[in-house]
Amino acid sequence: MDRPVVLVTGGSRGIGAAVARLASRAGYAVVIGYHSDDAAAEKVLAELDGPGTTIRADVGSEAAVEQMFTEVDRRFGRLEALVNNAGVLEGGSRVDQIDERRLRRVLDANVVGPFLCAREAVRRMSTAHGGHGGAIVNVSSAASRLGSAGEYVDYAATKGALDTLTIGLSLEVAGEGIRVNAVRPGFIRTGIHARGGDPERLTRLASAIPLGRPGEPEEVAEAVLWLLSDKASYVTGAFIDIAGGR
Questions:
Q1: Is the confidence at residue 186, as pLDDT, over 70?
Q2: pTM for this one?
Q3: Are 86 and 10 in contact (CB under 8 A)?
Q4: Active site residues
Q5: CA 86: distance to chain centroid?
Q6: Residue 195: which pLDDT band, with cuts at 50, 70 and 90?
Q7: Is residue 193 over pLDDT 70?
Q8: Which part of the chain is the Ketoreductase domain (predicted)?
Q9: Based on the number of CB atoms within 10 Å of its own CB, is 141 exposed (0-12), middle (13-18) or buried (19 or more)?
Q10: Is the distance from CB of 171 to CB of 237 less than 8 angstroms?
């Protein structure tokens, strides 16, 4: 495989799909990891400019994550980049209304999943494991800084954990050829708000954004691809806020 290989989790929609398309145009072979929507994943695959594949996996399951990376090994042989984008957002709720079942769903998807994916990527990329280095970009959220009081404190807390993973892992593997960074999107025009039960959220809150509008998935993807690229070769443990000034 002449092209570098990137795995994009949650690659069938929203920011992940935008990253997959842009990565393909930038010369990557793209692995679209996704949870359940076969048709959406195949649609993104058909939009790629070069080689790619889809792999269905629940990132909250260790066995599923291990199988996904084994499939990447089998189909492409070597992994150069990981974009930890998969995540979930439940309906708006105060902390005193959030039950354990919801909390564990959000933690599994937004913390356990990225952690396991990062672990498997390091096992393949790290020079300490015989790898050739690589780059990891975690898709966090401005919520990790803002807290999302009255709506999604559980989601914000998981993104805070992802920020800490970014910092700690970047220091741990900096000497092993791996750079680890994160982007923190704010209000981005994707379907996650509708899936969280509030499809009008972006319209309602647009006036609170200093730039006066929601962001587009492609604007986040541009930052992700820069962090993956050699143009960011001296950047690790860093965060790019893509939140319109919030």
A1: yes
A2: 0.95
A3: yes
A4: 155
A5: 5
A6: low
A7: no
A8: 4-181
A9: buried
A10: yes
- List all residues 6 or more positions away from 36 whose beta carbon is below 8 Å from its beta carbon: 56
- pLDDT, the chain, mean: 95
Please, what is the Cα angle at 44 between 16 and 189, to 5 degrees? Answer: 45
The answer to whether the CB of 55 falls within 8 A of the CB of 72 is: yes
Dihedral sign of CA atoms 148, 153, 158, 161 in order: positive
* Side-chain half-sphere exposure of 16, counting CA atoms within 13 A: 31
CB contact at 8 A, 32 and 8: yes
Tokens of 108: 């599994």
pLDDT at 198: 67
Give the integer Cα–Cα distance in Å for 137 and 234: 14
* Average pLDDT for 114-135: 98
Closest CA to 107 of 67, 165, 146: 165
Query: 86, 37 in Cβ contact below 8 A?
Result: no
Stretch 42-47: mean pLDDT: 98
3-state secondary structure of 98: coil
